[in-house]
Amino acid sequence: MNLLLQYLSLCFFKNDPTLLVPDKAFTKKVIIFFLISSSIIEGLIADYEGVMEAWLRAIMATLAIATLVWSMKQWERFWQLLTAVFICEDVIVPLAGITDGGLYHYMVLNHVSYGGISAKYFTEAVTGFLAFLYVLWYLLIIAYILRKFFSFDFWKSFILALSYFVFTYGVPMMLFDM
Question: Both ends of the chain: CA-CA distance in Å?
């Protein structure tokens, strides 16, 4: 439980992920939680394709992390990096799904509007902005983790985090939306 709490504080930029050493059983549980929570969220949004997209995202994330540690010749850090990234995924993905979806549902049911803006456009603007904030938080966390592991400067780690995001979220989304 202590290790989990240390990893959770990583999502708020409080810990150094290089100092956290998980065992493989802990990492597997983290990935299983990701698969279950992502499958539920994607299944609610889409259908079986969303579930397949969540599984493909996990595979692509694992491949991206493996490629990075292999190219940096730091394979011994694979489990640490994999766990750090997936813990943050396990926090942000369900939190974004619940808050953004819940807020959207509330605003639609209550026809929330602002000024002269229609309820539909206002709801989409608010939830879109919230989704943007979650993606930005995600990118900053991944960049933080990469900076700690590989001593990259901020921009290099941020560009790698953005590339990772496009690879693990964008590519599966494109494949299943075709």
Answer: 42
**What is the extent of the structural domain holding 159?**
24-177
- Count the alpha carbons within 13 Å of 20 in the hemisphere toward its beta carbon: 29
User: How do the pLDDT tens digits run along the chain, 178 residues long?
Assistant: 788 899 999 999 999 999 999 999 999 999 999 999 888 887 777 677 778 888 899 999 999 999 999 999 999 999 999 999 999 989 998 888 888 888 888 888 877 777 778 787 888 888 889 999 999 999 999 999 999 999 999 999 999 999 999 999 888 878 776 6
Total tally of structural domains belonging to the chain:
1
Let me know if residue 115 belongs to a domain.
yes
Q: What is the pTM of this model?
A: 0.89
What's the burial of 146, exposed, middle or buried (CB within 10 Å: 0-12/13-18/19+)?
buried
Beta bridge mates, 114 = 117
Residue 15 included in any domain: no
For CA atoms 36, 41, 47, 51, the dihedral sign is negative
Q: What angle do CA 42, 48, 54 make, to 5 degrees?
A: 45
Residue 51 lies in a domain: yes
